[in-house]
Design a protein that fits this description.
transport; 3% strand; 21 helices; purine nucleobase transmembrane transporter activity; mainly alpha; two-stranded antiparallel ribbon; 454 residues
């Protein structure tokens, strides 16, 4: 029955292979259950609740949103992709919008909800698919590596391996005088070793082992509580009512113009970020056609649109396809049955919520560095001998971490491509829509950098 429902044989697969692939993908991306709450909890503060209680609430929201979005991917799109709140997108929500711009987290969730609804509408009429197909091919090929560098940079900062510097902006931290950084480096070494050996679930094993080492050193009296482990642990927190539905408060208490600008900002960033991540994972799994496009792209796009809308309703940031889906694809996963197993894995993980608060932050941020390095593999698909490819792909990859924005990197590559093509006298190779998209992006950044819009 499963084979028939997901048309497994037509995709040169079988039920056993799909089940193994689904379990592999879940283990590869399950770190988000730990990492996403710690990132968002930096911005989401709920009166009367401690930091780690909020972390547990967000963990539940993360699990539920991931399960629902992945079920849509399985049953509607029939693709072997897992979905969850996006790395990079959660950092944009917490560090740029809420902490940087001073927008309340309730209003930020409301903005995510509104743009999620817009995404569903645009996906239904095919507008998102059309715009994404306008992305120059070198940008599509480079976006995965750019996201990887962005995550890598965030992870290095969170582990305090890279710290602010007045003269050079950033510099190497006092690593071996910092137990937080030392344990992070040891955890990284273990995780990379496991990954190099092809161990399934290397990232989650690395996180849990590093956390266990921190607790062992604390219990042995090497460090006091609060140094490499949480100072206190809350009781299990399954009540997410303070978080779920908070977007309604964000909708009720807004200034229309300001809210419209916040929605536009989220819409712009999320549109390009989710498109980039979907292309990145499709590239990694060799699902793109000869033009660098994903066939029937509107179906997986609808899965992330539904996930984003539901996620905002229950208290988490934008949901997107995960590059770690490639782990299951490498195991032979080719259909939505793989995604169904991933969704069931998320649902089962609800039983582990009480343990989330016991994981030190440095252990969870190991995942950003490891995933970031993995995603650099996409650079091999860029034709660096072609000037148009080299410039647009190079800017896509480098602007993302330097500007601390996936969307800014995509925009740089999209604008650069037609400029270099015209300089080469190859202006006929650029589609009219690509010229229009580049001009619109230039207008946006002129207004944005002059402070006219957020």
């Amino acid at each position: 029955m499963l084979a028939a429902r997901f048309n497994v044989e037509a995709h040169d697969s079988d039920v056993r292979t799909e089940l193994v692939a689904g379990l592999t993908t879940f283990l590869a991306m399950s770190y988000i259950i730990v990492v996403n709450p710690f990132i968002l909890a930096e911005a989401i503060q709920i009166p009367g609740y401690e930091f780690f209680e909020v972390v547990q609430m967000i963990a539940i929201s993360t699990i539920v949103a991931s399960a629902i979005a992945t079920l849509v991917m399985a049953l509607y799109a029939n693709r072997p992709f897992g979905l969850a709140p996006g790395m990079g997108l959660n950092a944009f929500f917490a560090f740029t919008v809420v902490i940087g711009l001073g927008i309340s987290w309730q209003t930020a969730l409301a903005a995510v909800f509104v743009e999620g609804v817009l995404f569903m509408a645009l996906t239904a009429v095919g507008a998102r698919k059309y715009i994404i197909q306008l992305f120059p091919e070198p940008v599509k090929r480079a976006v995965g590596a750019g996201i990887g560098l962005f995550l890598l940079f965030i992870g290095l900062q969170e582990l305090q391996l890279v710290v602010p510097d007045d003269a050079t902006l950033v510099t190497l931290g006092g690593v071996f005088g910092n137990p937080w950084a030392i344990l992070g480096i040891l955890g990284l070494a273990l995780t990379f070793a496991l990954w190099a050996r092809g161990i399934t679930g290397a990232i989650i094993i690395g996180i849990l082992t590093t956390a266990a080492a921190g607790w062992a050193l604390t219990f042995a009296g090497v460090f006091e509580r609060g140094v490499v482990t949480p100072e206190t642990l809350p009781a299990a927190q399954y009540d997410i009512t303070p978080l779920a539905g908070a977007f309604v408060d964000g909708l009720a208490d807004i200034e229309p113009l300001t809210f419209a600008l916040v929605v536009f900002t989220f819409f712009f960033v999320d549109f390009f970020d989710t498109a980039g991540t979907l292309i990145g994972v499709s590239q990694f799994g060799d699902f793109l056609d000869e033009d660098g496009d994903l066939p029937e792209m509107e179906k997986p796009l609808m899965a992330d649109a539904v996930g984003t809308t539901v996620g905002a309703m229950i208290g988490t940031s934008t949901v997107t396809t995960y590059i770690e889906s490639s782990a299951g694809i490498e195991e032979g996963g080719r259909t939505g049955l793989t995604a169904l197993v991933v969704a069931l894995g998320f649902i089962a993980s609800l039983a582990l919520i009480p343990f989330v608060a016991a994981i030190p932050e440095y252990a969870s941020f190991i995942a950003l560095i490891v995933v970031g390095v993995m995603m650099l593999q996409g650079l091999v698909e860029v034709d660096w001998s072609n000037p148009a490819w080299a410039v647009s792909a190079g800017l896509t990859v480098t602007v993302m971490p330097f500007a601390y924005s996936i969307a800014d990197g995509l925009a740089a590559g999209i604008v650069a491509y037609p400029l270099i093509k015209v300089a080469l006298g190859e202006y006929n190779d650029v589609r009219l829509g690509q010229y229009v998209l580049a001009v619109l992006l230039v207008v946006y950044y002129v207004l944005q950098t002059r402070g006219v819009i957020l």
